[in-house]
Amino acid sequence: MDIFIQDNPIESSNEDFLGRDTYTKKLAKDINEWKGGDTALVIALYGEWGSGKSSLINLTLNDIDKKNINVIQFNPWVFSETDNLLNRFIRELMIGLGGKIGPNKDIVKKLEYYLELLAIVPQKTELKTVLNNGILILALLGITVPQTIQFITRFPEILGKGLQAGVILCFSIILIHHIVIKIVSFLRVSSRYSEKSVSGLKREIKKLLKNKKLLIIIDDIDRLTKQEIRQIFKIIRVNADFSNTMYLLAFDRDVVEKNLEVQDNISGRDYLEKIVQVNFTLPIISNDKIHNYLWEEMLVIFHSLPGQIYDDYFNDMSYFSSIFDSGFKGFFRTIRDVKRYLNSLKFNISHLVQDNIIEVNPIDFSAIEVLRVFEPQCYSFMVTSKNIFFLAKMSLSQNENGHSLYKEHIKFVDKYFDKLVNEKNKAHLGKLLFELFPQIKEHHYFHGYNQRLRICSDETLFDSYFNFIPGGSEEEIGVFEIHQASIISGDYILLSQFLEKYKRNNSFYKFSKKMLNALVESDMFEEKHFGNIIHVLLDSFVDIPQRNIVSFEASVDFILSSLIYEFLKKKGGFDGDFQELKNAFDKTKSIYAPICFLDFIDKYEKLSDSYLRIPIEMVRELKWLSIKKICSRKHALLKEKNTIFILACWRKWDNASEDYKQYICGLLDDNGSFFEFLYKFKIEDVELFGSGTYGKFNFYSLIEIYDLESIKQKIIALKENEIIYAMHKSIIDLFLENCDKNHSVFPEL
Questions:
Q1: How are beta strands 278-281 and 245-251 bridged, if at all?
Q2: Which end of the chain is less crowded, N or C, counting CB atoms within 10 A of the terminal residue's CB?
Q3: Does residue 727 register a pLDDT over 90?
């Protein structure tokens, strides 16, 4: 696949998918049948930039009778700002007619004479230069204009100052040497053609052209500067009396009319009408033709993406059609718009593909690329204001005031976009954004948006659409990395080492969230590896890096439990997989992981009927396995980060069994273990306005584990020991100062 689509004019009717061939054949026929005349015929082809004027000219040239018509193509844009356009125009005529040894050598020779005579006529700029240089010379002499006459009358006296005059004379010659050369050239040429004038030579050229038809094509006039546009039309006007000559001009009429000089109350349009005898406007290309071309070429790009990407996103064309028919296609008005966009899309989407995996939804990405190409200010605003597009998701639990705040934000966005967007694209932009971000219009968030990597689903995924880096930035996790995990998911050691890497660089939480999204949205992981994956995930609970949890953000424990649950749901049931789950529980190195997962089941299976129900008998047996694991490793419980949670579940699930009571009594009997246990309930809390921290005691959790009064009496007794009190004064005082307060979950009730 070529990297870029060439934005070159078409050369043949085989490339003409716009159906202009009939039109160009008619134009070529009219040119071929033109009988000629004593003066030139000027034809103008009007069309906006990018509308296909050059292509239409090429198609027309294919049917021109070149045996009887000499075609000369002059592109002033090639020579602009570097050459005298009149000089280049005449030379292009000479080349087009075959040069000095061609069949039109007589005409070429006359044109050469004509060019030499034109070249020696001083231009306005040259006369201005002479005048300015003359004033400079007088200034060097210290002479003002009123003193000039007096200077002339005293010339003999001044002449006496020979050295000074000599220096000034030499400097003056340097300043006006090109004018001196021009005069010498004039004398030389006039000695050769003393009997001819410019007008005389033109008459001779005109006479020679009576037996030869010329078609002079001048394209890209609207690309020139104001001065160059005026010069081109001056050239045409000066040479409009050449017989049997046709000029075919192509330009944007509005651009040229604005740049033509207004003289003697003559507007640019009037000036143009005095030169152009025949004009026609480029045939209008229907929007349907442009949009059909765009559709087909986009599918070519999407088909070229590696692997199963096309099948994954385009087997069902409904979403692509809804995006395309919203505001998307309205941004394209010319074929040049289409080609410009396709090149950008093809190049940029390639950055988001790694080993047959794409990091974004290609349909959404194609829509965002439209904004980048045609509305760059709007695109930049989106990059820096992504939160606006997720307000509906953030405000689901808000009250009426929250809803009002949301509506105010939307008004702000609408007002801001109104200032940024081109007037002709405003309606298209609104429709496209509503299709990309349904929550803006409908003020609700549907979890199905997470599917298919939609831009509206996740703030992190949103960044991927703008950074052209997997996952949005180098710190984020991409789909490619989840795919790597799926490849090695059947190997316990490799998968464990792979996850350990994300623990070390503190990105395990992000990886787990991305993996959960991928599991819900796709079949990336093979079912035969689910048992091994669950085992690795349970072991991942060990040494999970601590992180600050933002309000309403799920903990990593919750994400891992959700992952295990989703893998079990993918199985479609538990009847045949109970043993596999039991094996994972038995093999895991973590005491906490199985308990955390079962607590997740207890809480979240009650939330919705959509959850897959685990049989009660299975849950009971899994809890028994977990208690068995606790009992086998009682000596290590105080070293666990989640000792309090483990003990609370043990007591609840085992109905405060003798094993449990014996363990707690053992803690109370050993002072070292008792204080290690007690410190587990101390919480460092942040003071109001973040001015510092202070200690709190988690009485609520302690009550779930053991009798508060028994603990209190134990601490009072230990306080009597001065050595022990000195060693543990902070925790003893914290407990005793607060133990008689209300320790319900909601004290204010």
A1: unpaired
A2: C
A3: yes
| 685 bridge partner residues | 694
Q: Which neighbouring-strand residues pair with 72? A: 216
Supply the DSSP string of 194-230, one letter for each residue.
TT--HHHHHHHHHHHGGG-EEEEEE--GGGS-HHHHH
The pLDDT of residue 396: 42
Task: Give the C-alpha separation, 303 to 319, whole Å.
Answer: 16
677 within 8 A of 638, measured Cβ to Cβ: yes
Please tell me the pTM assigned to this model. 0.61
Same structural domain, 201 and 221: no
On whether the CB atoms of residues 598 and 619 are closer than 8 A, the answer is yes
At 311, list the tokens.
Answer: 């099948």
Which has more confidence, 166 or 53? 53
pLDDT of residue 749: 31
Greatest distance between any 2 Cα atoms in the chain:
136
Which residues are CB-neighbours of 592 under 8 A, at least 6 positions away?
Answer: 541, 640, 641, 642, 645, 646
More reliable by pLDDT, 552 or 64? 64
Report the SS3 class of residue 207: helix
What pLDDT does residue 127 have?
Answer: 46
Answer whether residue 660 is part of any domain.
no
- Residues 275 and 360 placed together within one structural domain of the fold: no
Closest of 283, 282, 229 to residue 257, by C-alpha: 229
Indicate whether 251 and 142 sit together in one domain.
no
End-to-end CA separation in angstroms for the chain: 70
Q: For the chain, what's the residue count?
A: 749
Q: Is the pLDDT of residue 544 over 90?
A: no
User: Tens digits of per-residue pLDDT, 332-363?
Assistant: 988 889 999 999 999 888 888 887 888 889 99
- The string of pLDDT tens digits covering residues 97-133 is 776 666 677 777 777 766 665 555 555 554 455 445 5
Q: Average pLDDT of 327-332?
A: 93
Q: Within this chain, do residues 513 and 631 fall inside the same structural domain, yes or no?
A: yes
Q: Is it the case that residue 442 has pLDDT exceeding 70?
A: no
Amino acid at 423: E
pLDDT greater at residue 89 or residue 144: 89
Q: What is the CATH number of the domain that holds 271?
A: 3.40.50.300
Q: What is the Cα–Cα distance from 487 to 434, expressed in whole angstroms?
A: 37
Taking the C-alpha atoms of residue 352 and residue 194, their distance in angstroms, rounded to an integer, is: 74
Neighbours of 679 (CB within 10 A): 12
Residue 106 structure tokens: 């007589």
pLDDT at 747: 40
Q: Tell which of 415, 447, 467 closes a domain.
A: 467
Whether 361 and 389 map to the same domain: the answer is yes
Pair 293, 433 in one domain: yes
Same domain, 216 and 196: no
For residue 216, list its beta bridge partners: 72, 247
Instruction: Please indicate, yes or no, whether residues 350 and 411 belong to a single structural domain of this protein.
Output: yes
Query: 490 with 526: CB under 8 angstroms?
Result: yes
Strand partners, 215: 71, 246
Alpha helix locations (H) across 615-728? 616-632, 643-653, 658-669, 671-679, 699-705, 708-719, 722-727
Which residues are registered as beta bridge partners of 192?
none
Q: How many domains does the chain have?
A: 5
Q: What percent of the chain has pLDDT over 70?
A: 70
Instruction: Please give the residue range of the domain that contains residue 693.
Output: 670-749
